[in-house]
Amino acid sequence: MTGIKKSLGILLALSCVNCLAQDIYTYKKGDYSGIGKWYHGREIAHVMGYQGMTWLERTEREAEENTAKLLENMNILATDNIADIGAGSGYHVFKMAKIASKGTIYAVDIQDEMLAAMKEKRVNREFKNIVLVKGSEKSVNLAPDSVDKVLIVDVYHEMSFPYEMMLSIKKAMRNNGRLFLIEYRSEDAKVPIKKLHKMTENQAVQEFKGLGFTLEKNMDNLPWQHCMIFTKN
Questions:
Q1: Architecture of the domain defined by 51-232
Q2: I want to staple 193 with a disulfide (CB 3.0 to 4.6 A). Which of 113, 137, 147, 184 is the partner?
Q3: Closest CA to 88 of 66, 63, 55, 60
Q4: Per-residue burial over 166-203, b = 16 or more CB atoms within 10 Å of its CB, e = otherwise
Q5: What is the average per-residue pLDDT within 107-128?
Q6: Which residues form the signal peptide (predicted)?
Q7: How far, in Å, CA of 155 to CA of 34, rounded?
Q8: What average pLDDT does the segment 118-128 reach?
Q9: Average pLDDT for the chain
Q10: What does the DSSP assignment read for 68-129?
């Protein structure tokens, strides 16, 4: 009977999680840039398709975002295992792979076209420490306790299932891991980005707190973006 009770308990717990996930989303008409799905009072934005790949690789990006400073903020060690969630065409992936030369960079994306672009670059540049991972809308498909650092650059606000995705990411993080959330600052009206593609620090903290993450610090040293560092509780 003990085994049966334990199994029933697990099923009940999973059922409760599923019910909670359904309850936290609401649906209503909103901004034209949104999907009509709301989470903690924030409308989720449309995912940028692979057609925007050239924008990710634009020559002005370093000046606009200071990606060198971002990587400096991450304090990447040679042995780090790092997951880039929503890696796109690999703009940050290949920069991090050079630094974490004895570690592994997991380049996670849900679009086959993005993964194909990174695969071609990986072969041409002869990188051996980059692993391409096909994620889903609800999971990053990484092994538990497999990464030291997680990087999410201008992607979180587009996650269709942020609750499920963040639980998946949390599971993949090691206990002393750090999550770097990079989002355009909604507090600054001068940042030339659509409203739904920006976030405030308060909104991010509100959403992450309920999932067992604590804001360690906001580096706030990038031209247009927050660099928020979260830890697991």
A1: 3-Layer(aba) Sandwich (3.40)
A2: 184
A3: 55
A4: bbbbbebbeeebbbbbbbbbbeeeeeeeeebbbbebeb
A5: 95
A6: 1-21
A7: 14
A8: 92
A9: 92
A10: HHHHHHHT--TT-EEEEET-TTTTTHHHHHHHSTTSEEEEEES-HHHHHHHHHHHHHHT-SS
